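User: Predict structure, ligand coenzyme A.
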Amino acid sequence: MIGIEKGNEELYRLLFAEYTTAYTDKCAEEASADGRIIFAYLDGVPAGYLFTVYERGSEGIRHFFTKPDFRGQGVMQAMIRYVIETSDMNIATGMSSAHKFAPVMEHVFKKLGFSRRVGRNLYRCDAEDMWERWDEFMAKSGNRLCDTLRRQGYKTVTLSDAPEDLLWQFRRAPYSEYKCEQNHQHLILPGAEVTQEISVMCTLNGRLAAYVFAYMPDSISAIYKTLSSSAALQGGGVIMLAIAESLQRAREHGVKRIVFTMENTGKRANAFREKVLSVLVSKPSYSVSYFYDTSGRDKNDQ
Ligand SMILES: CC(C)(COP(=O)(O)OP(=O)(O)OC[C@H]1O[C@@H](n2cnc3c(N)ncnc32)[C@H](O)[C@@H]1OP(=O)(O)O)[C@@H](O)C(=O)NCCC(=O)NCCS
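Assistant: Predicted complex:
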């Protein structure tokens, strides 16, 4: 019989000592600070744990684990069911298609009434001739577009050199203005993982027109977290100026491997993928999906 109980960080370290990693410790810490730690017992024996965090009006399932000997007996399902039944918030979780247990997780989430919503594709560019291909593309059409934009008055500045006024514009802009799925303002907070020297903001007459934020997890890789242009200026190619400048900086920093993370939705994302991203890479390396509990009614309506 499976029993579910609330747990805490100390008990997690004690009961699951053999199965902790730096990542699960971090999740436990976050759940302890602002979320929930839940344990499952199979016939009284500790069998699994699950961590959640509260995030912008929903409870996010961050990580869950069933001890190898107890797998395939409904432990994960029992823990997730418990979260659904006891939370007064909507439940969400994210999952990468590259995860070893993706088929199991997808099966369970769907079975429990979650539905897949927006996905995010990750495109890995690491071909040896990546930069040569980029040069060819720029020579053929990219430089012309960038020159036209510059003549129209568009300017670029790296995040490291961005004046306070521009950062202030970014901070106070509603994220819908940049048609992002997420609010990216945390990316410019002190200590954020963004690499300022390769992150670029684009302006028109001193107004923030577009931005490209990326970070370097090591000395040869860059992860592009977000590319966005102001809703009013979309369609004019301004994002191209920001990305070209950012890639140039990344190259100067010795980047040889790039990952772009892109939402799967939207015509503009498709156009960017076809026109620009396809120069560097042709198909997604893997995708991240978000699952939302739609088994009950929207708890925010209660
Ligand atoms: C993923 C994990 C938590 C699953 O836990 P579990 O307790 O074995 O899961 P459950 O027994 O509740 O459910 C497993 C379900 O997946 C199904 N399943 C098993 N293999 C499958 C596969 N290859 N494809 C699709 N479904 C599969 C099982 O049939 C079962 O469904 P059913 O009850 O409808 O028959 C466990 O394997 C684990 O701890 N993995 C390591 C940690 C991890 O990767 N955690 C997730 C990251 S957040």
